[in-house]
Amino acid sequence: MKRKDLLRHLESHGCEFLREGSNHTIYVNRLVQRSSTIPRHREVNDLLVRKICRDLQVPEPRGT
Predict the structure, then answer these.
(1) Which of 7, 43, 47, 64 is 20 to 30 Å from the Cα of 24, by its Cα?
(2) Quick check: pTM over 0.70?
(3) How far is CA 2 from each of CA 10, 30, 33, 61, rounded to the nearest angstrom?
(4) Using CA atoms in the order 30, 33, 37, 43, what is the torsion angle rounded to 10 degrees?
């Protein structure tokens, strides 16, 4: 999955950008007080997409 599509999906489900790390971006879901890191690659592995969505407690994107 493209990184920008993943970020758009997370933001549409209430997640917010928290900060930039050296190699990752940190997103947080303040409703459930959970955070996850998103690597700065153009493509993010589908298994990693599922893990990020589970960490942030948002539904998985369709097509993964």
Answers:
(1) 64
(2) yes
(3) 13, 24, 25, 12
(4) -60
